[in-house]
Recover the amino acids of this structure.
């Protein structure tokens, strides 16, 4: 079955020869910003927190999209959003700043190419944001016969970019995680950015809109990489999460390592996963809480430093036929518990989420629900 024109690309087309730009790096644990320190709560207190989702009505906003990248800039104290994808326009390359009340589009002199990626993190060692890889879309000239929407081919990108609040700078290195759809989060204790899993970049074609994939599909990986603010380093670990993509990851509740949940992959036939892993900076360990969120991919995960907990929202999965999910869960370092706010964002996947440590609140933007692509902004506040 052929839908529209078929295009095939290799990731190497976007990987330039390695060259080392100057990038000053300084990291001093004693210098760590006080906003980053969590208030350690007991498990009993953490699990009795109340949660309130509030939709923010803004004067300006990014266009509807999923798979955008978002992170909080700890130095400039604002939320930064980059890129994303929607079926009508394809990939985006715009940069937006959210101050807690409104969005403003930035106009940096240089920027990464348009892409879908959830991989943007604060790097404490360089005191800048780091963006890793992504997927670029190109029109095939055809259309999806089921919806009439434009058909797109996709190209894996294998680059790293740094954002200093004013401009994007490509960071070219000879060694880097050459994957897409990986999980990424900041280890606040070491100051490293951690990347886990994904799918190896290689020849891939997308015909229609997530309908067909080239038979040369690249394999899922289970690698773990760290970024120290200057270079990438792959870790040689025996225990690790199984091969997967679209997992959710955030800083750990105690700020010592990172937490990973779910994704799509596993041993044998790929499936939605519901396992919980903690990386302490040296080793991965799977933990087995008595209750966990249902297996899912493309969920949103954020570390609320004020309460010392991690929040999970939505994703794609569920029992039977996979569907958009709209549940909210809290993790205290040992246990998961579902919470039931009176108002919540619509069930969705592929939204972007981050924690604003200046205002002590979680920010969620966009995604895709049963009705299409979204550009709503939500704030989650925990109290108790």
């Amino acid at each position: 079955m052929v839908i529209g024109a078929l295009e095939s690309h290799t990731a190497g087309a976007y990987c330039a020869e390695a060259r080392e730009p100057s990038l000053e790096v300084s990291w001093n644990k004693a210098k760590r910003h006080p906003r980053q320190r969590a208030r350690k709560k007991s498990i009993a207190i953490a699990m009795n927190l109340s949660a309130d989702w509030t939709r923010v009505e803004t004067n300006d906003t990014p266009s509807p999209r999923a798979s955008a990248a978002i992170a909080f800039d700890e130095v400039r104290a604002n939320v930064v959003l980059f890129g994303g994808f929607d079926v009508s326009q394809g990939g985006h390359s715009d940069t937006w700043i959210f101050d807690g009340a409104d969005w403003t589009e930035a106009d940096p002199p240089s920027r990464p190419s348009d892409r879908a990626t959830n991989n943007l993190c604060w790097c404490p060692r360089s005191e800048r944001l780091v963006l890793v890889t992504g997927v670029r879309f190109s029109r095939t000239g055809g259309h999806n016969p089921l919806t009439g929407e434009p058909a797109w081919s996709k190209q894996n990108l294998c680059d790293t970019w740094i954002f200093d609040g004013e401009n994007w700078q490509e960071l070219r290195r000879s060694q880097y995680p050459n994957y897409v759809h990986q999980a990424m989060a900041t280890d606040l204790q070491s100051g490293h950015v951690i990347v886990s899993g994904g799918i190896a970049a290689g020849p891939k074609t997308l015909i229609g809109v997530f309908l067909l994939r080239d038979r040369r599909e690249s394999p899922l990986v289970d690698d773990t990489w760290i970024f120290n603010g200057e270079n990438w380093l792959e870790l040689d670990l025996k225990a690790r999460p199984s091969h997967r993509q679209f997992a959710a990851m955030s800083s750990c509740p105690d700020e010592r390592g990172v937490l990973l949940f779910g994704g799509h992959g596993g041993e044998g036939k790929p499936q939605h996963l519901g396992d919980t892993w903690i990386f302490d900076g040296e080793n991965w360990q799977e933990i087995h809480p008595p209750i966990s969120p249902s297996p899912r991919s493309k969920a949103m995960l954020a570390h609320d430093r004020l309460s010392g907990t991690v929040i999970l929202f939505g994703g794609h999965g569920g029992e039977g036929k996979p569907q958009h999910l709209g549940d909210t869960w809290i993790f205290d370092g040992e246990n998961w518990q579902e919470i039931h706010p009176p108002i919540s964002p619509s069930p969705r996947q592929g939204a972007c989420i981050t924690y604003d440590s200046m205002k002590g609140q979680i920010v969620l933007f966009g995604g895709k629900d049963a009705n299409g692509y979204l550009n709503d902004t939500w704030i989650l506040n925990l109290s108790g």
Remarks:
- The radius of gyration is 19 Å.
- The first helix runs from residue 43 to 46.
- Confidence is low (pLDDT under 50) at residues 1-45, 203-216.
